[in-house]
Design a protein that fits this description.
The chain is an alpha/beta fold. Among the domains are: 3-168 and 175-182, Tetratricopeptide repeat domain (Serine Threonine Protein Phosphatase 5, Tetratricopeptide repeat), CATH 1.25.40; 357-498, Rossmann fold (3-Layer(aba) Sandwich); 523-693, Glycogen Phosphorylase B (Rossmann fold). The strands form 2 sheets. Strands 3-2-1-4-5-6-7-14 form an 8-stranded parallel β-sheet, covered by helices on one side. A 6-stranded parallel β-sheet has the order 10-9-8-11-12-13, sandwiched between helices. Helix 11 packs antiparallel against helix 12 (189-202). The chain starts with a helix and ends in an 8-residue tail after the last strand.
């Protein structure tokens, strides 16, 4: 056969997917024609297809030696070097190819990929730009340019690149997927959902798209659809650890706690080290009061946090430890892991002085929620010197509390379908002077709004009892009890020290005018009733041990707890038995509407607080209803809230600094009815006269703080701690 016939047969076999046969012919040609470039190039291509890149490189070097000015040969040599991870040499080969062919768009594209591997992001973007300038419809170049911009944190630029890639290739699955990832990060949930749907329509086996779609459906409270998405992702890839993790998060929100733990355990078994995974598993077990392996798992989790790993959502850490230092580390690690950065336009030019200081309150909880119960009257008490706007990014449950807030003296904006950046820009367009974050690092919080700078002054308030761990929050509202001077280094924000308690209260909270007997509440007709209506996850093994010792020491006493879930109740009864206490002495209270819930506090004798995370709204509920709260303080904000409330009621004798003193006083008050009655009488008087429930006076103090920070900003002064002085009671 002639040389041309041999080359024809080799190419035909290669095209028909028979590289082995083609290789035999190419090698036969080289045996007789060792300088035949077609055979050498063919063998290089086959070696590359077989992933034998070292062999491919050898053939390419031979081809280039025969024709040093072959631009395609240099470009292919770069590809082989890239696969061999010699990125620097690959760039040199691409440079030579471009030198030989100035308009070589593919070489610029490949060069950009190699530069990205070398960490030279800006040079990589320039290389992709050159490829696109030569070939505007080069969809892969647009896509990979987007990847680089995403690495650089330029999400808007990345989004535009992905959209260009899709415009030139509507079937580009990876571009739709990465577009969804950026939209999801930016908070454009509906658009991200649509992008993932486009991926799935083109590739029904794209497990990551199903998993991410499930996350967004969870955020949109589409729980059934979200579970189907996670299950589909796992059916496609049973070893997809992140999908198991996401499924666990959804099941946690649905209070399907055993199934949630099983999903978390599966993710861990598959080697996942996902952000927040270990802390989420620990928290779900605390929800169930499942304390098996509690100490070992907690220690391992704290060790991860100490190493700077984002091993737990920060709120869960508040429940685990009262160390303000650990909580600060957890918050900082978490914020870094969420890529919450200052956007490209985070510096806001100083607004002209407004006739009224414009304050924006941002929350997902403007409905029947603990935060709304506390803050509703504050909105009604704000004076005309302030222009108030509520930015609501939570669900519209159309309940009485939402109606009350909306009817107040404020502008109410539903921004639930807007992204973090859109909400921040809306606040800027309204020239909000002070942006107040009522969520912080709690569930459904949106710290990205504040990372984008919604206002020149940004304040963390009420919702999250700790530092946000980010430099974009200027102030944290607290008080002298919550943050003693030696703890202040563990808070990144400057502190607004309120003169009494940081916690605002609604003195208009209605207590149902009903008489609920002990019998109808499931309590014994006689005997001392200890009470704790905190969430079950705040009950630690050590706290429960103290409670059981108290019950053993006080004959006929019972412990009245809120039944968050029946699994927790069963575990607590089992633990009581283990401590030698009849489980029947644990009585569980079901949900009641707030007015009746407040009324049933009258059936209890003493509220027992938890540590390391105190009762917050739960404590003020008890105090408002006339039930004394016994607390034990720790080091952190979250472990000192009840002490703050009691100090503002001048009932500091109920604040203990050790478990032992807490236990002793709990027993003493149960066995000294005269002393307890005197405390209850003082509480009944103080609740109407002391600062804690004097909402008008509290509002004046908070407005004073707003005025001080506003004037400092207007004077171009740096942030500093603000000490608000006490004012006279409201008239």
């Amino acid at each position: 056969m002639s040389l041309l016939d041999l080359l024809h047969d080799a190419r035909r076999l290669h095209q028909q997917g028979q590289p082995a046969g083609a290789r035999v012919i190419y090698e036969k040609i080289l045996k007789h024609h060792p300088t035949n470039r077609d055979a050498i190039t063919g063998l290089a291509v086959i070696a590359g297809q077989l992933k034998d890149f070292k062999r491919a490189l050898g053939f390419l070097d031979r081809a280039i030696e025969l024709d040093p000015r072959d631009a395609a040969g240099h470009c292919n040599r770069g590809l082989a070097l890239h696969e061999l991870k010699d990125f620097k040499s690959a760039v040199a080969s691409y440079d030579r190819a471009i030198e030989l062919r100035a308009n070589y768009s593919v070489a610029y594209y490949n060069r950009g990929n190699a530069l990205r591997e070398l960490g030279l992001a800006e040079a990589a973007v320039q290389s992709f730009d050159e490829a696109i300038a030569i070939q505007p419809g080069f969809s892969q170049a647009h896509h990979n340019r987007g990847l680089i911009l995403q690495d650089l944190g330029d999400d808007d630029g990345a989004l535009k690149s992905y959209e260009h890639a899709i415009a030139f290739n509507p079937e580009y699955t990876d571009a739709y997927y990465n577009r969804g990832v950026v939209l999801q990060k930016l908070g454009h949930w509906l658009a991200a959902l649509s992008s993932y749907d486009c991926v799935i329509a083109r590739d029904a086996t794209h497990a990551a798209a199903y998993s991410n779609r499930g996350v967004i459906q969870s955020l949109l409270l589409q729980s059934t659809a979200a579970l189907e998405s996670f299950d589909r992702a796992i059916a496609i890839r049973p070893d997809f650890a992140n999908a198991h993790f996401n499924r666990g998060n959804l099941l946690k929100d649905l209070k399907q706690y055993p199934a949630s733990v099983a999903s978390y355990e599966r993710a861990i078994a598959l080697g996942s080290d996902g952000v927040g995974l270990y802390g989420s598993r620990r928290h779900v077990k605390m929800q169930m009061c499942d304390w098996q392996h509690h100490d070992s798992e907690s220690c391992a989790l704290l060790e991860r946090i100490e190493r700077g790993e984002p091993a737990s959502p920060p709120f869960h850490v508040l429940i685990m430890t009262d160390s303000a230092a650990v909580q600060c580390r957890a918050a900082k690690s978490w914020m870094r892991s969420q890529h919450v950065r200052h956007g490209p336009t985070t510096v806001i030019a100083k607004y002209p002085r407004h006739d009224k200081i414009r304050v924006g309150y941002f929350s997902a909880d403007f409905h029947d929620h603990a935060t709304a119960y506390l803050i509703a009257q504050l909105f009604e008490e704000h004076t005309p010197a302030f222009d108030i706007t509520a930015f609501s990014f939570g669900p519209d449950r159309q309940d009485a509390m939402r109606s009350r807030i909306r009817s107040g003296n404020l502008e109410f904006l539903d921004v639930s379908r807007q992204s973090d950046r859109q909400i921040a820009l809306l606040a800027r367009n309204l020239e909000i002077d002070i942006a107040v974050d009522l969520k912080g690092l709690t569930q459904f919080g949106r710290p990205g709004i504040f990372a984008c700078r919604a206002a020149p002054i940004q304040v963390s308030y009420l919702g999250y009892p700790g530092t946000m761990g980010a430099g974009f929050m200027d102030y944290l509202v607290a008080d002298r009890i919550l943050i003693p001077p030696d703890h202040q280094p563990h808070y990144l924000e400057k502190i607004i020290f309120m003169p009494h308690s940081y916690q605002v209260n609604d003195a208009r909270r209605a207590i149902a005018d009903v008489s609920l007997s002990r019998e109808e509440l499931g309590l014994p007709a006689s005997g001392f009733v200890y009470c704790c209506f905190n969430n079950s996850f705040k009950i630690t093994p050590r706290m429960f041990e103290v409670w059981m010792r108290i019950l053993r020491r006080v004959d006929g006493s019972v412990l009245w707890l809120y039944q968050d879930n029946p699994i927790a109740a069963a575990h607590l009864r089992s633990e009581a038995t283990r401590w030698g206490v009849n489980p029947a002495r644990l009585v569980f209270a079901a949900f009641m509407p707030l007015p009746r819930h407040l009324a049933r506090h009258r059936a209890a004798d003493l509220f027992l607080d938890t540590l390391p995370c105190n009762a917050h709204t739960t404590a003020s509920d008890a105090l408002w209803a006339g039930l004394p709260v016994l607390t034990c303080t720790g080091e952190s904000f979250a472990s000192r809230v009840a002490a703050s409330l009691l100090t503002a009621l001048t009932l500091s004798e109920l604040i203990m600094d050790s478990y032992q003193r807490y236990e002793e006083l709990a027993v003493e008050l149960a066995t000294d009815p005269i002393r307890l009655s005197a405390i209850k009488r003082r509480l009944a008087y103080n609740r109407l006269t002391a600062p804690l429930f004097d909402t008008p006076r509290y509002t004046r103090h908070l407005e004073t703080a707003y005025q001080v920070v506003y004037e400092r900003h207007q004077a171009d002064l740096p942030t500093e701690d603000i000490w608000v002085e006490s004012a006279a009671p409201a008239g």
